[in-house]
Amino acid sequence: MCGIAGILNLREERADKSLVAEMIQTVRHRGPDASGIYCDRNVALGHARLSIIDLACGQQPMQNADHSLCITFNGEIFNYLELRQELIQKGYRFATHSDTEVILHLYEEHGEDCVRFMNGQWAFAIWDANRRQLFLSRDRLGIRPLFYTRTHDAFLFGSEIKSLLACPDVRREIDLDALDEIFTFWFALPPRTIFDGISALPPGHSMRVKDGDIHVWQYWELMFPDGATCDEQIGDREDEWSEQLLALLTDATRIRLRSDVPVGAYLSGGLDSSVVTALAKQVSNTHLKTFSVAFDDGEFDESSYQREVTRFLGTEHQEIRCTYDDLGRIFPEVIKHTETPILRTAPAPLFMLSKLVHSNGYKVVLTGEGSDEMLGGYDIFKEAKIRRFLAAQPDSQIRPLLLKKLYPYLQNLQAQSGVYLKEFFRVSGDDISSPFFSHLPRWGLTSRLKLFFSDAVRSELDTRNRYDDLESRLPAQFSTWDRFCQAQYLEAMYLLPNYILSSQGDRVAMAHSVEVRLPFLDYRVAEFAARIPSRLKMKVLNEKYILKKCASALIPPSVTRRPKQPYRAPDGKVFFAGESFDYVEELLSSSSIQRGGIFNPLAVQKLSEKFKNGRAIGIKDNMALVGILSTQLVLHHFVNNSVRTPLYAFN
Amino acid sequence: MPSIKQEIRKFILDNFLFGDKNGFADNDSFLEKGIIDSTGMLELVTFVQQRHGITIEDEELIPDNLDSIERLSTFIQRKLAIAA
């Protein structure tokens, strides 16, 4: 796993090699083991290396035998051994044992279609000197990041936005439409990022830069079967689905253990990471080290389950216990890595976890991420089912009580009367027919946070409906999928890459040079899971039923039986319940808010008071606080120091 | 001395609207305007109970009693009259 960056001068003038060196320097946390720069007239490619495969010979940027191609690559191609064998049979010769060289020869063989043969997680750029073009690609599900921008004379790309900001010609301005999207969906819709003019290459896309033109295209999409016919076509052969899923997951885990350094595993105490850890133990039959997050606050802590799994599987386990103060202290640093406003503090404990992994000398961990999206684990899927059930009999007094069963961990919801529960989850006729039915409550609640925007921001914001924007991007087949699959698509293709895999994934793991590998996001698993009948993914209200069935023999029965507890972290308490932090006081002060220009100083002041008085107890207030604070930190870190707190005050 | 309605309005403005006064009338439904969510309900009930020293029973937790400044004010006055 590594950091990449590069420049293509569009005027055919010599590329600025020293600038690429600076760009790479900003992402050395992604690759502290080595660095290199390739320069050929108008192109310069940079690389910061985290050595994992072929430690001796895998240096990058790497050229092919006749030096017509040069690649800078961040990621892993897990089927590289099979691809290598096929290429050797076709006459290709290899100078190294790295997966990087496999991509080069695969490109020689298949051109831009090479990515279709790859099973892995990647962001890379290949300079093709014969065609005078730069080819870039990002993996199917968006595990590895890739950003780009264009100045008056150059195309620039990098693993992180801070690489691009190293170029003085790149503007540092907030994109208000992106901000509005974040305060609706929790993420900006790619290619948009929070920085005006800086784009993210969307997952499953490739791009070519040639003769000054940028061409972006999609090479992969997650597709579901037609809802009307899928059951007839694929039947309900539960045992077969279960066996095939287990076989695929086992193979996905097996190839993700390919590494020349030891591979550990994250263990949350839930179903997904326990399954991955169990499979890793089974496949490798060797010593396995596991790592987990624990919280002082019992509301979020899962350490008793974690201990039970480690005892059952016999792993060597280490945990990092997070206090409010720990999380508050590191939050500014976390935002330096997420490079975007976030609405929950959930990335912060994972930032601490990767530090623990790094301090144990590990560079690679397996995780259970992606299972909830692919196999139907999220509460949002269950909630949508219940809301439809309520809508079918709107006068029922009993049905609303199901909502209490849905959220046993939300105390505020538990205290509601049936009448009010029904009102909060009321479904209108328009909602029922919306393609976003499952997500309307979440997005509606999040959109309420916009009342904190300043008058100037409100008046400048595009008046377009954000939902229409998203709807226009949905694949043509979307309307033919069943409602469960539609909700899965929205989670898997939008929230997953644009928040879970970035702010909670790559960015906070790579902050401490840790590569995450995700067996549930092997594209074979994802495509297979999409075909599993929805009623086997969630049997009535039993989430991830088919996964529990196929993995029941691998993990402790208590883990399959326990009610799902989504990964959460304390939010407002981090900043107001323990140590008081100067940066919080400063960034939320009326003068800072005024200078930032994004939020309304009076509204923020009232919110702060509510927290200080211990009266802010709801999700909305907590999201507002984290959203405002993280936006202010983005301004501080990246936008010309628009707040005046000196950096030392943050450390 | 502020009226019950004024007190409720101030509480809603400070705690749910954070000072945003746009188009908020005494008869507006808290639910329809998206002013109150499940947490807001608890905050509102706690405020009313503490401020007026009354107890709101579970069966009284219905929109007819609580879902606008007007309704809530009427409800509080009724409760106070019974208590007196």
Describe it for me?
The complex is a heterodimer of chains A (651) and B (84). With 651 residues, chain A is α+β, with helices and mostly antiparallel strands. Chain A is 44% helix and 15% strand. Chain A has 31 helices and 17 strands. In chain A, α7 crosses α8 (271-284) and α29 packs across α30 (601-612). Mean pLDDT of chain A is 93; it is low at 642-651. With 84 residues, chain B is mainly α. Helices cover 55% and strands 0% of the residues of chain B. Chain B is globular, with a radius of gyration of 12 Å.
Features:
heterodimer; A: 651 residues; alpha+beta; Glutamine Phosphoribosylpyrophosphate, subunit 1, domain 1; Rossmann fold; 3 domains; six-stranded antiparallel β-sheet; 31 helices; disordered C terminus; B: mainly alpha
Strand numbers in spatial order across the main sheet of chain A:
2-3-1-9-8-10
Radius of gyration of chain B: 12 Å
Which two chains share the most extensive interface? A-B, 30 and 20 residues
- Give the termini separation of chain B: 20 Å
CATH topology of the largest domain in chain A: the name is: Glutamine Phosphoribosylpyrophosphate, subunit 1, domain 1
Helical/strand content category of chain A: alpha+beta
* Shape by Cα distribution of chain B: globular
Q: The biggest beta sheet of chain A, please?
A: 6 strands, antiparallel
Task: Assign the CATH superfamily of the largest domain in chain A.
Answer: Aminohydrolase, N-terminal nucleophile (Ntn) domain
- Unreliable stretches of chain A, pLDDT < 50, 5 or more residues? 642-651
Strand content of chain A: 5-15%
Write down the CATH class of chain B.
Answer: Mainly Alpha
* Silhouette of chain A: globular
Count of β-strands of chain B:
0
Which structural category fits the helices and strands of chain B? mainly alpha
Which architecture of the largest domain in chain A does the CATH hierarchy give at level 2? 4-Layer Sandwich
Low-confidence stretches of chain B: none
